[in-house]
Each structure stands twice: as C-alpha cells, then as structure tokens.
Design a protein that fits this description.
- The complex is a heterodimer of chains A (282) and B (156).
- Chain A has 8 helices and 2 strands; from the N terminus they run αββααααααα.
- With 282 residues, chain A is an all-alpha fold.
- In chain A, strands 1-2 form a two-stranded antiparallel sheet.
- Chain A is globular, with a radius of gyration of 23 Å.
- Chain B contains 2 helices and no strands.
- The longest helix of chain B is centred in the middle third of the chain and has 131 residues.
- The model of chain B has no long low-confidence stretch (mean pLDDT 87).
- Classes of the chains: A mainly alpha (282), B mainly alpha (156).
- Chains A and B meet through strand 2, helix 2, helix 3, helix 4 and helix 6 of A and helix 1 of B.
Chain lengths: 282, 156
Amino acid sequence: MASEEAGSANMTEYIQHHLHHLQLSVGDGAFMKINLDTLFFTALTGLIFLFLFLRIARKATTGVPGKLQCAIEMVVLFVDGLVKETFHGNSKIIAPLAITIFCLVFLMNFMDMIPVDFLPWLWGSGHALAGHDPAHAYLRVVPTADFNTTLGMALTVFLLIQYVGIKHKGLVGFFKEWFTAPFGKYAFPANLLLRIIEECVRPVSLSLRLFGNMYAGELIFILIAVMTLGAGLAHVSTYLLGFGQFIAGFAWTAFHILVITLQAFIFMTLTIVYLSMAAEHH
Amino acid sequence: MIPNLTLVIQGFAFFAVVWLVMKFGWPHIIAAIEDRQNKIAEGLSQAEKARKELADADARVADEIKKARAEAATIVDKAHHQAAQIVDKAKQDAIVEATKQKAIAAADIEAQAHKAREELRGKVAALAVAGAEKILKREIDANAHKALIDQLVTEI
C-alpha cells in the first residue's frame, strides 16, 4: 500500500498513485513518453495469446482434438461464424483480426480481475528492496485502461478499413465513393463531409468506448479498495467496512467479468461491421 | 488522458500480433477444423451407406432363404411322389411275381397230383390184380389178361 495513514489527502494520493503510469521520457514534450507498464502487460498478454494460439495451430490435429485445441477451436468457430455472417467479401485478414481483437482485448481486460493492489504492491516492494522510494513505483496493470492502447488499436483498425476498402473497390472506386455516396454525385460536398466525419468518428468511438469502460472499472476497484485504506485492526469500523469491501469487491468483480467480455466482443463486432461496410459497394 | 508515443507502439504491436495470427495461426486451425468436418461427414455418409448395404444384404438373404425353402419343398414333394411310384411299382411287381409263382406252384401241384394219380393208378391196378388173384385164388396169367387189366386201369 502506498499509504499507511487514513485521511482524505492520503486517499487522493493513493488514487492518483494508482492512476499514474510508469513512464519513460524519450524526448521533450508530453507526447514523447512511453508507458512502460502498458507496454509490458500488453506484451505479456499478447505473448500468452500468441503462445497458446500458435502452438495449438502448429499442432492442430484433424483427428480427436485435445481440450485446449477444443477450447480454441470453439472460439475460432464462434468468430468465424460471426465474420461469415457479417462479412460477405473475401478477405484473409478479417477473421484473424477479429479473433486477435477478441482474445487480446479480453486478456488485457482480464488484468483488471487481479486484485487492484496486488501487482502495484509487488512492484513497490521490489522498488523498496532495490533501495528506491516505493512512492515513485508507479504501475498500472490494465493495458486497455490506457487510452494509448485502445486508440492505437482503433487506428490500426482504421487503417485496415481503408486498406480493405481500396482492395475491394480499387483506388478509383474507393475515392469516387467519397464524393458520390450516399447522396449521389451532385451533392458531393455533403458526401465528402459526411464521409470524413464518419471515418474520424469510428476510431474515436471504438477506442473511447473500451477505454472508458476499463478506466471506470479500474477506478471503481480503486474506490472499493479505499474503503479500508490505512485502517487499523483495533477499529470496529475496519471490520464493518472490510465486510462492505468484500461484498462490493465481489459484486463488482462478478459484474466486471461480464463487462470485460462484452467490451472485447463489441470491439470485435464493430471492427467486423466496419470492415464489411468498407468492402461493400454503396 | 493525453496520448503519447505508447499509442504508436501499441498500434504496431497490435498489428504485429494480427499479422502473426493471420500468417501462422488462423489458416492452420481453420484447415484442421474443415478437414475434421470433412472426415466426419465422410464417416457419416459411409455409415449410412454401410447401413443401406446391410439392409440390402438382409433382404437378399431373406430372399435366398425363401427360395431355398421353396426348392426344398419341391424336392420333398418330388421325393414323396417318387417314393409312391416306387412303392406302386414294387407292389405291382410283387403281384406279378406272386401270380407267376402261384401259376408255377399250381402247375407243379398239378404235375405232382398227376404223377401221384398215375402212381396210385398203377398201385391200385397191382392191388386190384392182387385182390383179384386173392379173390379168384388162382394164378392169372398176367400176360393173357393184360388187355383186360389195362382196361380196368383206365376205368379206375
């Protein structure tokens, strides 16, 4: 725990400490910073996903599958069904993209299920052991609660939307559509304006939805943790609040399982929808 | 939340994962699934075929059994018929044989009777002669009265 004494100042400090990224400055200005914790946990979850998925893919048997292969095949078939239902074009990237989004976002969201203080406490203890001040040991474990992650993914999706659009319609057809759809060629300024707004809104809404949900989820976990912040064992209120914290923590964790799955699903589904819209002729 | 350089790295990292999955993951798994689906479909159709074949074979076997049974019945009928014929023929043969034997026996009996009668006749003749001799108490010249005795013999 960052703070040992009760008090609103400590509470604010605790919350702010929790919401601070472990950052590395690589240049001047606010933009030239790297969130090391986000990158680390993204890499961790990404490697877990890749390791499992690629290992199973390499050993995939056409005979009787093992349990892990069964589980992965179930997800694959689920995503494949969804893609085939929505996307009628022919694209090699869309299904792998969809399953990557679903699994990766789910795993990154799942970092929220780890007790909110556990990894930061380990990190702080490590810092203290190394002789540093644990107050500066910042760590945020949920990569999707970092806007950079969600926006980065949404921008990649945005670029893929343009790529799929150009691939399916050709360069001329793709740009022609900017001016002619949906109101016909005589209303081209309106068409262009609408198109630009539409294209800009997509990545923003996609990233903000996921980020907002995960950030709020993390914040609520922090607020639940605050209930017994700096509490002593001698106080009766500690036990009452501790019980309240247990109930609240349990309820929110159970509910959050739904949220993290749903958000991963929504991100994936919207990506599929956007890509299929990009591939279709208007 | 002001975005920083992490954004770019995350974007690329995400794309790298997608690319790896697209290149080395997804096609293998889908291929395995589709292969297995084909295998299962094939197996099911083969099972269906085998079941049909079995039903066919059953029907054929039943047919064969029916045929065999009918044939056996015909054979048995024929055998009965033949047996009856054989018995009839044997009966007739026996009757013919018996008739023949009876005729032979009758002829035999006749011959024996005849012979016996002849013998008897001879003996009666001798007896008559002896009796006459005794009655007459005198010797009769057999040769002188041969014609008379012969006449007597035929008359007996």
